[in-house]
Amino acid sequence: MPATVQAGDELPPLAVRVTRDQLVRYAGAALDFNPIHWNERFAKEVGLPDVIAHGMLTMALGGRLVTDWLGDPGRLVSYGARFTRPVVVPDDSDGALVEFTGKVGELREDGTARVDITAKFEGRTVLGKANAVIRPG
């Protein structure tokens, strides 16, 4: 993170490939074994195009964009997002490419700053109203 933070500062982008094996690991860690995250047949039966990533996994990766930039996850005060579209994860070794960008949207009187996060899969936004409040160093 730079020594000073200004409104408009851009965070280094983050590109992550989400694979099916990562979904299985995440399911075990989060205890979220919903079959839409691992069973292609079930996902399609409920109207999805294929297996989809856990929304909270996608959100966590957006948080990583911010904490990597901060260098200290303790400076992350709060973080929120809405799930707007699923990340469809193919059954191959490449997985789904999710691209994250961020920009300092506001400096606040209390010394914190708001970082606006964009998460895209196949050129479309998958997190809405994603922003983090940080305490710059």
Structural overview:
Strands 1, 2, 3, 4, 5 and 6 form a 6-stranded antiparallel sheet that branches. The radius of gyration is 16 Å and the shape is elongated. It is an alpha+beta fold and 137 residues long. It is built from 3 helices and 6 strands. The model has no long low-confidence stretch (mean pLDDT 96). It has one domain (14-134): Hotdog Thioesterase (Thiol Ester Dehydrase, Chain A). Helices cover 24% and strands 32% of the residues.
Secondary-structure blueprint of this entry?
Elements: E1 14-18, H1 20-30, H2 40-45, H3 55-70, E2 76-83, E3 96-107, E4 113-121, E5 124-125, E6 127-134
Antiparallel strand pairs: 1-3, 2-6, 3-4, 4-5, 4-6
Pfam families: MaoC_dehydratas
Organism: Amycolatopsis marina
Domain MaoC-like: 15-118
